[in-house]
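Why do we care about 3D structure at all? Because function follows from shape, and shape follows, mostly, from sequence. That is the central idea of this module. The next example makes it concrete: a single protein chain, its amino acid sequence, and then its structure expressed as tokens.
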Amino acid sequence: MKKGKIGVQMMMLKNKVEELGAYETMRKVSELGYHAVEVSQIPMTPENVAEIKRASQDFDIKIAALSAAVEPMLPGMPGETLTSDFEKIVNDCKTLDCNFLRIGMLPLTAIGHKDKIMEFIGKAEEMAHRLAEHGIELYYHTHHIEFQKYDGEYLLDIIKNNTTKLGFELDVHWIQRAGVNPVEFVKEYAGRISLLHLKDYRIGQIDTTQMDFKDMGKFFNLFTNTIEFAELGEGNLDLKSIIEAGLESGVQYFLVEQDDTYGRDPFECLEVSANHLRKLGYADWY
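And the structure:
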């Protein structure tokens, strides 16, 4: 029977990496039962790359994907990019036996400008062709803003229809936040997705005890921003149907992620999510 591999998006553990180091952080990930990680928002210093490699070997953790920007998020912003550090990024992939690379987000200056976005996507498509020569596939991670419509068509669909090599890393929480059915949408991207972010979608509590109702603007700001990133099983998404749709559509790695844990220890959040996925019947995907 066909199976996927469940892993962790390490963005949510970046503070743990700072505190414990990459090796000990990954040891803890393996103790929770996860044996795949996507590396994001962790500086790829020689020390970190070496620690990640050692941990992947010692704890049998597959490096599912690394992250890379095509160009700086803002002009002059520091950090590695494919435009200026192509060889270094390819070498990191080779060192860590990883053949998936993912772009985390649009450059901030492109958001809201279709022409700038399409120009950026053109560069990403070009990079996808260059990386393919090294056996590396490039994926673009989506949020909710790609569901803005231009002439009645989602921006994300426009991007898909104007690229052939670039793949997509869909994030089910952000699809839901965009008002789109994640199960159906994942199916539409069959053949273009190998990486899927699993993240639940919860309506948070509103504490009105300290609220001054004279300031209704403040109340409505709170009222309309109650959506939270949730541990799997603690929100409203039909995760079983999402995972099955992902598997049918070519997803290889199902990566657990939570952008904000609201003060809860991220390891605890990952444990809650892992237990829920086991309960859904995916224990042998670890």
